[in-house]
Glycine zipper family protein (Roseateles koreensis), 226 residues
Amino acid sequence: MMKKTVFWIGLVAMASVAGVANAHEGGRDFDGGHGGHGGHVVYDDHFHHDHYYPARGYVVAGVPHGALAVGFGRDRYWFSGGVWYRPYGPNFRVVVPPFGVVIPLLPSAYVTLSIGGMPYYYANGIYYTLAQPGPGYVVVQAPPGADNAQAVSAVVPSAAPPAVVASPAKPEPVIYPRNGQSAAQLEADRQGCNRWATTQPSAMGDASVFSRAVEACMDARGYTLR
C-alpha cells in the first residue's frame, strides 16, 4: 500500500510540473485570461495612480475593442486605456510609445501633475503634455523634477486588473489617392485630418467617432478609404 501511495504522489507531482512548464511556455504567464495578478500584470502606484496594466512585452492576440490606431512616421501603434500596442507578427505586443507621438485624448485613468509651472499627465509610466500646436497630447520624457512632483488631481475610474483577452484589431483602412497625391501629401493630409477630428463633438472621448471624422475628412480631400 505504501508503494502504491508513493507511486501516485509521484504521478501528481510530475503532472503539476508539466502544467507549470506549459503555462510559462514562450516566456509568458497565463492565468486563463482573467486578468489576475500573474507575471503579465503590473501595479502602478506612482503618484498614487494605483492602477493595473499589462506588463511591457506581454503579447496578446488582438488589441481591445475601440483601440485607437496612431501613426508615427512609418510605424503604427494602437492605444487603449493607457496601454500601447505594436504589431508583433500576427499578434500585438505591449510596448513603450516613442517620444513625440501624439494622441487625441488622454487615457481614462491618469494623474495630473504640475512641474515647473507646466501641466503634465501621467499614466502607466508615461508622461504626456499638451501638443504644440494642438489639439491633442504628446508623449514626452519624464521632465526634470518629476520624481518629486505632487499630484494635482487623479482620474482613476477603476483599479481592477485589465483583461488580457482582447478582440481582434479592426484592420487599418487602406488609403487610395483619387487625385494622384504623393505619399508625402497623403501623410500630411492624414495628420491634418487627425488634428481636425479631435475638434469634433465627442471625438475626444469616443475612438469610433474620431475614426469616422478622420475618414470623412480624408474623403473630402480626395482619398478613398477601404
The radius of gyration is 22 Å.
